[in-house]
Amino acid sequence: MGTSSEIYIRDAERADMDFIYQLIYELAVHEKRPEDFTASKAHLAGLLFDRQVAKVRLAFLADQPLAYMLYYPVVSTFSGHLNYYVEDLFVLPEGRGLGIGKKMLMSLKGEPGIEGLKWTCLMDNDEGLAFHHAIGGQQGIACYPFYMDWSDDDLAAD
Fold first, then answer.
1. Which residues 6+ apart lie within 8 Å of 112 measured at CB?
2. Pair 53, 113: CB distance under 8 Å
3. What is the pLDDT of residues 53-77, one digit of tens each?
4. Helix, strand, or coil here: 28?
C-alpha cells in the first residue's frame, strides 16, 4: 500500500453513491449491526444530493477509495457555536494507521462559520476510542442516546 502523502480527500458526488453505500454497509458490519442497515441507496442519495441534509467526504489512497465521512451542521445552544456533527467516519481496515481519519476531520477546519466538530464513538469500539483520544478529541459529558422512530405505531398521541 502507498504512503500517507498519497492520500487525497474530496467531497462526494452522486456518481460515488455505490461506494458510499458499500462503506455504510461495511460500517454496519464493523459495528455488529448489519441487520439495522435498511436504507435504500436511492433514499440515501436523495438525502445527500437532492435535499442536501448532510455532506459526505471521501478519502483515497492513490486512486483507491478507502474512507468516508458523513457530517452536517449543528448549533450548540449553550455556546452559540456552529459546529459540524460527524455522524460517520469510517476507514476500511487496509487504510487504518495512515492518518486518513485525522486528515478527514482536519479537512473540515477552516470551513466558513464552523467553529468545531462533535461526534460520538461506541463505548465498545476500543480502536475508535484510542484514535479519537490520540488526535486530541475531548470526551464530552456522559449522555444517554435516545431515539424516536416517527413511523413507530407505539407512539400514541396524548
1. none
2. no
3. 999 999 999 889 999 999 999 998 9
4. helix
**Residue labelled with grid coordinates 458523513:** 70
Give residues with Cβ within 8 angstroms of 107, minimum separation 6: 9, 57
Q: Are 138 and 132 in contact (CB under 8 A)?
A: no
Helix count and strand count (H, E) for the chain: 4, 5
Answer whether 57's CB lies under 8 Å from 104's CB.
yes
Give, for 121, the enclosing helix (H) or strand (E).
none
How far are the Cα atoms of 16, 26, 32, 70, 142 from residue 23, in angstroms, in the given order? 11, 5, 14, 11, 28
> Residue 7 to residues 68, 82, 98, 105, 146: CA-CA distances in angstroms?
13, 28, 9, 13, 36
Question: pLDDT tens digits, residue range 80-114?
Answer: 999 998 899 999 999 989 999 889 998 999 888 88
Q: How far is CA 71 from CA 6, 63, 101, 157, in A?
A: 24, 23, 13, 32
